[in-house]
Write a structure and sequence with these properties.
The chain is an alpha+beta fold. It has helices at residues 60-66, 70-73, 79-90, 103-113, 129-137, 146-152, 164-177, 219-222, 226-229, 293-307; strands at 2-12, 26-36, 42-49, 94-98, 124-128, 187-189, 201-204, 209-212, 243-250, 255-262, 266-276, 282-291. It folds into 2 domains: 2-184, 2-Layer Sandwich (Nucleotidyltransferase, domain 5); 195-307, TATA-Binding Protein. Helix content is 28%, strand content 28%. Strands 3-2-1-4-5-6 form a 6-stranded mixed beta sheet. Strands 7-8-12-11-10-9 form a 6-stranded antiparallel beta sheet, covered by helices on one side. Strand 7 (201-204) and strand 8 form a beta hairpin. The mean pLDDT is 92. The structure holds zinc ion. Zinc ion binds next to loops. Zinc ion is lined by residues 233, 235-236, 262, 264-265.
Length: 316
Amino acid sequence: MNYIVLDLEWNQSHTGNHAEVKELPFEIIDLGAIKLNQEMHMLDEFNQLIRPSVYDKMHHVTSKIIHLHMKDLMKGHPFEQVMRAFLDWCGNDIVFCTWGSMDLVEIQRNMSYYGMNPLSDRPIRYLDVQKLFSIAYEDRKSQRSLEYAIDYLSLPKDIPFHRAFSDAYYTAKILTAMEPAVLKNYSYDTYILPKNRAEEIHVDFDTYHKYISVEFADKSAALTDREVLSTRCYLCAGKKNLKRKVRWFSNNGKHYYCVSLCPIHGYMKSKIRIKKTQTNGVYVIKTSKFISEEDFIEIQSKKDSMKKPRRHKKKK
Ligand SMILES: [Zn+2]
């Protein structure tokens, strides 16, 4: 197995010049990657510019950040040619690694625009190195810039940032500096969703469980689905549905919470996030984790306070 540390730069519609093409809001113009083996040794590199075919002017933000000009890009090759060369170069049995969660979505959106098959027929297990950085060194939630992470780890800044190849190189440097145990915290790219119940994702991490559903027509279909609403103990062998102590509720219409009780493992909090799909449907990401009794009481009172009518009228 090899790791493919990938980075992309893209251009977008320049107002007043070229209206946005809905199927391709971000046109990839630069693709860089580093191949690492399982022992994290650098084996090879990939670095190609892509000649644009949709947006023929650089968006001012793009040119400011990445210092690429149209005349440079015109020396590049068409997307499909670069992509085929890249996939050949990747080989089989690989794990993609990216800084943040955007690149695998955008590369597949570009592939789709040119009629190419997506990278996989189901969600792709990959490593989001930005997330791993937060898990390894910060609060598991922060989203730092690549340069911040390089500075934090006191790694040498020997090439300029913000080109696909250099950012892939720096991402690879950060990845190789990490404790191997952190790499258990992989992510799933959901550009392609599970197509049936057997393909749905159920996975245990150190501190929580994650579920990724099939696509539903709309939110109400998702929120009446038994599997979506189920609250099974992911630590118990039988994975029995647990008795709910706080039934599903939402305070914003986007996130839903409930708390159930396992007689062996204690209070389990589940959270549902409703996400939009490419085709105007929805899918669900549900995470479950065990919480303290104090946290349970806090969630219970949060729900109770929502139900009560206001006792005091607004002061004028
Ligand atoms: Zn249990």
